[in-house]
Write a structure and sequence with these properties.
This protein has 605 residues and is of the alpha+beta class. The chain folds into three domains: 4-149, Creatinase/prolidase N-terminal domain (Creatine Amidinohydrolase, Chain A, domain 1), CATH 3.40.350.10; 162-301, 3-Layer(aba) Sandwich (Creatine Amidinohydrolase, Chain A, domain 1); 310-601, Creatinase/methionine aminopeptidase superfamily (Creatine Amidinohydrolase), CATH 3.90.230.10. It is 36% helix and 20% strand. It has 19 helices and 28 strands. Helix 5 (122-134) crosses helix 12. The radius of gyration is 25 Å and the shape is globular.
């Protein structure tokens, strides 16, 4: 069935492209800072395609349009693009070209590509520049065509900043800034531009509310040897935050002034900038400012990225407490679902709202860390499926329900997934569930040498599934911020080496998710996710060893576990984990019926 609304929007966009002589117009899923979640103002790609996933890029020509997205969204994108005339390109699949490969092959000599340079990462924009330069073409990066077509576009988000209580920080702004400047000196950089929002918020000990589910404010930071320049919308500066900035020596500018500042600043040394985090437009502004002199950009990294990934002792103490309280809420929710399904009406959306409300009752709750994924039956095969008030499935006393959820509290940010059995399931599903559980627990039980990255360890989570030639098309683990973004680098756990992806060594104080699963289109989806903390193990002549400690304590559903697929060590790992769940969470459960259920749910097998 033809999607008339999307086709009309694309026609209007193509008319503007023709007016400016642009042959290809590109729109990613990004704000000015390459945030994972974009505010409504930035959802141009969604407006012009109907695809609502959190990752994807559309390229539009006069007679064609293509949408590239990753394996998490193949099923969802196919459904949402139906009737739009937009072709789906499944990233990473055999025979599927990348955007750059497609443009290299198809763009004619002398053609133009256009995009809003503020929402395209610098390295990506430079790639397009190289492709079109080789074709005697042009990159037009100062045209936001969405603004000219999207008549009722939402306003740029702007919300008041607030302070993180000093007793929750562990380090002051001055201490963090001093560490950044030390790293700048090591890299022989005089100045440093930071564009990544969670890095800026962590450094300043401030938080905001401009990005959905991420407590950050649209901002930039420019660090010199003796000044800290902070660019933020004037309406976000409360009296308390203004006093804080004056007290700590901030030089505050309006958010809109960043390009002019970079173009006109009097540079007297090299500038440290992360090519992966700065936008193409900001990079060009830096070029304009540096060109008159002999200084260069040190395209390296943001020191704050690793600093905030290694949590300090205050942060870790608070995180551990928050995860216990959050785990207790999840246990109460699992009890409710398993004991009431089939007895009262339930659907994906109402259950998500119920869990969200339960979390919101916890002291210190700030907001969800991402929209709760409540996916029943075949819907769980879509990794980032989101039920809505208008579009959701009824939950029955059969099959399974996958719930991936989390929140940000004063003291930490959580993320956890449990897949619950609600009624009869097949032998295939039991095997997939059991093997997913085995992978999660094997990785969490790993002991490894200091210096290992997530790529050294990913096989531990995948091997039970690879043994039956099954895989999941995403990474196994991601870092998590402290009262910040639920997805954080530079560390991760994944098997594949991808261009531009950081490969940071795991260090004590880092926390990371551990979430293997199985996703079978039209049938079922399984994910079992714990958050684990990197801690020190033994040290000997072979070096310093590290291991993981669980932060998440919620039962694995024994109704889906079949011992015939498990080795003896897997049974022990499951029993040991459930013993910890009972010991740590039961004291937080007041209701005796729920406590009795938890005792049974964590019994030895």
């Amino acid at each position: 069935m033809e999607n008339t609304k999307i086709r009309e929007r694309l026609a209007a966009l193509r008319s503007k492209m023709k007016e400016y002589g642009i042959d290809y117009y590109l729109m990613p899923t990004s704000d000015y800072h390459n945030s994972e979640y974009s505010a409504d103002f930035f959802k141009a790609r969604e407006f012009f395609t109907g695809f609502t996933g959190s990752n994807g890029t559309v390229v539009v020509a006069q007679d064609w349009a293509g949408l590239w997205t990753d394996g998490r969204y193949f099923i969802q994108a196919e459904k949402e693009l139906e009737g739009t005339g937009v072709t789906l390109y499944r990233m990473g699949n055999e025979g599927v070209p990348t955007i750059k490969e497609y443009l290299t092959e198809n763009a004619a000599s002398g053609s133009k590509i256009g995009f809003d340079g503020k929402v395209v990462p610098s390295a990506e924009g430079a790639g397009y520049e190289s492709i079109f330069a080789a074709k005697s073409g042009v990159v037009v990066y100062d045209k936001d065509l969405a603004a000219e077509v999207w008549a009722d576009r939402p306003a740029l988000p702007s919300h008041p900043l607030y302070l993180v209580p000093a007793d929750l920080c562990g380090k002051s702004f001055e201490e963090k800034l001093s560490e950044v400047r030390e790293k700048m000196e090591e890299l022989s950089a005089k100045d440093h531009l930071i564009c990544k929002l969670d890095d800026i918020m962590w450094l300043t000990n401030l938080r905001g509310n401009d990005v959905e589910c991420n407590p950050v404010a649209l901002s930039y930071a420019f660090i010199t040897p003796d000044a800290f320049h902070f660019f933020v919308q004037s309406g976000e500066m409360t009296e308390e935050v203004s006093d804080y900035c004056r007290e700590h020596g901030f030089t505050v500018h309006d958010y809109s002034e960043i390009s002019t500042f970079l173009e006109n600043y009097d540079y007297d040394g090299d500038v440290l900038v992360n090519k992966g985090n700065v936008s193409y437009a900001m990079d060009k502004a830096l070029d304009k400012g540096l060109n008159p002199g002999s200084y260069k950009k040190v395209n390296n990294f943001d020191p704050t990225e690793l600093m905030k990934a290694v949590k300090n002792e205050t942060e870790l103490k608070n995180i551990r407490e928050v995860y216990l309280k959050d785990s207790a809420v999840l246990c109460r929710f699992i009890y409710y679902v398993k004991n009431n399904v089939g007895k009262e009406p339930m659907d994906e959306y109402s259950l998500a709202m119920k869990l969200d409300d339960m979390r919101a009752q916890l002291p210190g709750f700030i907001e969800l860390s991402f929209p709760t994924i409540s996916a029943y039956g075949p819907n769980a095969a879509m990794m980032h499926y989101e039920a809505t008030r208008e579009d959701h499935a009824e939950v029955k006393a059969e099959g399974m329900l996958l719930v991936d959820s989390g929140a940000t509290y004063l003291g930490g940010t959580t993320d956890v997934t449990r897949t619950m059995v609600l009624g009869p399931i097949s032998e295939e599903v039991k095997e997939h569930y059991t093997r997913s559980c085995m992978g999660m627990l094997r990785l969490a039980a790993a002991t490894f040498l200091e210096g290992c990255t997530g790529r050294n360890l990913d096989i531990l989570a995948r091997s039970p599934l690879w043994d039956i030639e099954t895989d999941y098309k995403c990474g196994t683990g991601h870092g998590i911020g402290y009262m910040l973004n639920v997805h954080e680098g530079p560390h991760n756990i994944r098997w594949a080496m991808r261009p531009g992806l950081n490969d940071a060594a795991l260090q004590p104080g880092m926390i990371v998710s551990d979430e293997p699963g199985v996703y079978k289109e039209g049938s079922h989806g399984i994910r079992i996710e714990n958050i684990i903390e990197v801690v020190k193990a033994g040290k000997n002549t072979d070096g310093q060893f590290l291991k993981f400690a669980h932060l998440t304590y919620a039962p694995i559903d024994l109704d889906a576990i079949d011992k015939k697929y498990m080795e003896e060590r897997d049974v022990k790992l499951l029993n040991d984990y459930h013993k910890q769940v009972w010991e740590k969470v039961s004291p937080l459960i007041v209701d005796q019926e729920i406590k009795d259920w938890l005792k049974s749910a964590t019994r030895e097998i």
